Amino acid sequence: MSDFKPCEDQSATFTGWASTGTPHLKKWSYHPRPLGPKDVEIEISHCGICGSDIHTITGGWGALPEPEIVGHEIVGKIVAAGAEFQNRIGEHVGVGGLADACGDCKDCKAGNEQLCSKKSFIFNDKFKDGRGGKTYGGFADRVRVRGDFAHKIPENMSLAEAAPLLCAGITTFAPLIQHQAGPGKSVGIIGIGGLGHLGIQWAAAMKCDEVVAISSSNSKREESKKLGATKFVNSKNPEDMKAAAQSMDIILCTSFAKDADWDALLNLVANNGKMVILAMPEAPLSIGAGAFIHRQVSMVGSLIGGKKMSRDMLDFAAKHNVRPWIETMPMSDCNAAVKHVMEGRPRYRVVMETGAAVRAQTSN
């Protein structure tokens, strides 16, 4: 098919850290596709590490047939652009999970580019606009994407802090907006990690009546309060679960154990409430139908967000001082950084910095 034809700019070479299905990344170079009139080239200064990156590089979501550069919490400076985006050269921007979309379909026109049938994810995907070319992510020195998907970083936000907002931030912000979180609503967050710690901050900033942190241990109880939680539920404590039963209008599920008791978790949702699945399991879920029928509980999914939602999220974060808690590590030590994340040690997001980071931070 013409949409999937090889398309390389032999005059340009980008270098990153690639996986072929194991957690160990190796330095690897590729030729990007030629810069089109709607494209921008970004010199990467920062890239966060997300659970989706880990699932991909370990083969948890399927084997990788060829080297793959992951990374979809990208921040950097536009250093080259096609004709339509020349005025943005020099701008500090962030790129999330999308590199392109058609712009013309029903979903795109509704602001849901993430649902476009011709969307291109930022890595492990192909461009579908007829020009060909494969996508590669942000564990690299540079990346080329459609300019519409490069979002300006607010001036009062550090570039390192901005990076996790491009995935963890939009992933937790969008469903709260879509399901009308705010005054009068009780919101629960399952999993206090890279996504969950931002979910708590969003819900608190939206002035929800209750913001409930739900975790399988007490180790993050005090940190959850600092993030803005008004209550804490230990999902392994029967008394906590009983006291919180059927009390939350919206629950964001940002992580879960392989042996998660889904019926017990659904019992936390209020009548007519929603459980929103944000974490992608590697195996099918086993859930009884009782809560769906007898209490009209809904279980829905949410996939990142479109262009406008991403811009709104960055503006909201800038205005309400929502920031990820981060640890920075050099991208040259990406294998140590990935290992750190796989061990579940960060509080709460690792952001890798390239050689361009100091220059970018100084000039921002």
UniProtKB/TrEMBL annotation:
The keyword Plastid does not apply. Keywords: Metal-binding, Oxidoreductase, Zinc. PANTHER family: ALDEHYDE REDUCTASE. It comes from the Eukaryota. It comes from Entomortierella parvispora. The lineage of its organism: Eukaryota, Fungi, Fungi incertae sedis, Mucoromycota, Mortierellomycotina. Its cofactor is Zn(2+). GO terms for molecular function: metal ion binding; oxidoreductase activity, acting on the CH-OH group of donors, NAD or NADP as acceptor. InterPro entries: ADH-like_C, ADH-like_N, CAD-like, ER, GroES-like_sf, NAD(P)-bd_dom_sf. The keyword Plastid does not apply. Residues 21-352 form the Enoyl reductase (ER) domain. This is Enoyl reductase (ER) domain-containing protein.
